[in-house]
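Researcher: Structure prediction, please.
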Amino acid sequence: MTFRDPWLLLVLLPVIVAGIVVLRRGLRHRPGSRYPTLAVFGAPSSAARARALLPVARLIALGLLVVAFARPQIVEKEEEIRTEGIDIMLALDISGSMQAEDFKPKNRLVVAKNVVAEFLDLVTNDRIGLVVFAGQAFTQCPLTLDYEVLRSLLARVEIGMIEDGTAIGTALANCVNRLKSSEAKSKVVILLTDGENNAGKIDPATAAKVAEALSVRVYTIGVGKEGGAPIPVNHPVLGKVYARNSDGTLQLTKIDEETLKEIASITRGEYFRATDAEALAKIYAQILDLERTKFQVKQFERSEEHFRWAALPAVLLLLLELGLAHTRLRVLP
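Model: Predicted structure follows.
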């Protein structure tokens, strides 16, 4: 129960005080008579006591009217929420270049896996799936609401599971294939890579056009410091060394930002650049917010007025007090 104008209830304070004063005085008062009679020396009659309560009844009626004017209400809130959630396919690059150590504490892939695991803490009613890719792409986890299973499968992801390379188009096509039968209002691919498309048989732009035709929005993320970073490799004799070009210079990672921007543009998504772990975590959270704001929860309020339950007894009490004061409990002149 709430009140539309609760400030009016302050008027009840003086009404309550007046009622207490009138009641205490009325019960102690011995009504007199204008005519000589011995009855006045006896105990007050029941009619006399009832007559003393008439002002109290009037004050109670006034209090009820104050409550009625404050407009007591029962407010019912209804929410129109999305029950189907968002269907999200995560595409994670696990090519050799993801071993670059410009992301702390270890390398790009370790950081990306940690960020994706934290991303799962932000979702509740959304189906999530995972595609990993290098020279080829495969589904590590189909769309699911079982985030613990997804976490377990994510933990098993490592570089070397697939032949090396960066098949961005193939990875995107795999994700779109997983979403094509989805009935969710929002179908999303979050594709993370640090390289250029150099493998697979599907061109990234072609895969993006298929995604757009199926109403799948693609958010692309390029990871890595500006200017690239050396790529560590395991040498059978020397151990960890850094990959070099044919001329002996260090081979640095290079992101094909133009392709990633094109994919995002075709599918009405966005392109993001992450240069450290903190930025990457913010990007995933931002993408989720962008999608959720497209289907915001709508709230409706419906109020039911209950002032009659106070106003009706007040009117009846006033009529009763007025009737008794002029009939049975009337004071004769």
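Model: Residues 86-293 form a domain with the Rossmann fold fold (CATH 3.40.50.410).
Researcher: Thanks, that helps.
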